[in-house]
Amino acid sequence: MSVRPVIVGAGPAGVRAAQALVAHGLRPVVVDEAPRWGGQIYRQPPEGFTRPKQALYGFEAGRADALHGAMAAILGKVDYRPDTLVWSAEGGKLDVLHNGAMSTLAYSHLIVATGATDRVLPFPGWTLPGVYTLGAAQVALKFQGCAIGSRVVFAGTGPLLYLVAYQYAKAGATVAAVLDTASFADKAAAVPAMLRQPALLAKGLYYLGWLRAHGVAVHQGVELAAAEGGERVQAMHWRKAGREYQQACDAVGFGYALRSETQLADLLGCRFVYDPLQRGALPERDAAGRSSVAGVYLAGDGAGIMGADAAEWAGERAALALVADTGGHIDPMRAALLERRLARTAEFRRGLERAFPFPVQWAAGAPDDLVVCRCEEITAGELRRCAADTGAREMNRLKALTRVGMGRCQGRTCGVAAAEILAQACATAPDAVGRLRGQSPIKPLPFSATPAFKQEAA
Amino acid sequence: MKPSPETPAVPGKGPALLQRVAESGRKPVGFVLNGQPLTALAGDTVLTAVLTHSARLRFSEFSGEPRAGFCLMGACQDCWVATESGKRLRACGTFIEEGMRLVTGAEGLA
Fold it and tell me: Structurally, how many domains does chain B consist of?
């Protein structure tokens, strides 16, 4: 059988995987939904934008430039397919959509590097215009040269919270406040584990210090109460130590760290296991990135949140596994080095989770009229009533009965929150309520989408 | 009385949601929003083109409340915008083109 590797995703993991396959004489197909490579973290602006990489990526400019250059150098040696959405997959072929035309793409081996999106826990008013994820706030700035507002509140928790606030202030936007649900004590307790990567810890402290030095109010240990507004957001409300506060603003960026984009791995039949650190189910993989399905490899944040540097190492490591599995020769020292780096990052990752813990009390504080699913506008109260009235104790049952997770986002936005609400309603833990199964198509297809090939008559 | 969608939310400020802070030297691109001719910049997404003039992309099919996108990276599917001919575009992942005719005014249009 000839080796026909396909890589899904052209972020840090996908690009390094492609580079390693090319170095071993293979010619992978690289499929990416974005118009240019780089992923979300190193997303490149459209043609014609002029800001230097230093302005776009800050401390990460060198890494971004190296990753962009690595892909540019192998473009003649890969089959690169940007603007291409993988919307379904099974048994050796992917269903893809490009320029409104559908086609299938066969693979012998597949590296899934689908990345991550913001982990969202909603608050009343989160559907108001002007309320975006932290990632969205960053995309607006990096990819479009826009701020999401002129007076912005950043809220939630995680490393991205301080980074985006810093980037906005540097870009000339007014950061009205930073509201962190993690406390100072959480961060202090995390220092020992985070000292494993002192440069990353130093960067985090730098952003916080810079914001404070520039007069930005940073409130830690808060609980987000609500966004207020009519046609758009006008204020953010929060609680701290039993008192209510509010801040006028015209935009809010929020999120609680990241969640892995696992729906493709799910359609491929990969076995999932609950990960307590991520507070959700992730596809199983060995240290090299092999999934439970032969010929399917997982790398980067799409397989578990480890950050961009680790994604590069995991992408390369998965590619080496693919080469070795198809009879090629790899450098075992290099493979071992990558695995050691990944193991160290996993330790650091535990420190990050300690510094910016998931707000485990969120579901208990969510009011019944809170919209959990923004596609179908299903409230926390509807989910709780369903659990109480029907005895539903499992996510797919809840989905069938309430339509939560059945809308256009397929649970990518609401899945985490819905699982928390169901677990709270059932007085159990999120690992006991199962996970939303991925369904094809994982993203909506336009009715006008046309097959690029003739279907045989049935 | 419910304010019209184009009423500035902040007194003295326009209705635009997004604020340009960089890259303003790009070539202008003309498009039409709810019948009104407007200007975007080459390289703007449909989302940027609309929200630098307005504060919404569509109305929710269920509550009728305005929406203006959420994740900007193709995951949440909140930013679908209609063209005058009834085609739907995912605004965060589609670039604005000269002469595009977009509609954000009709209830229920997604």
Answer: 1
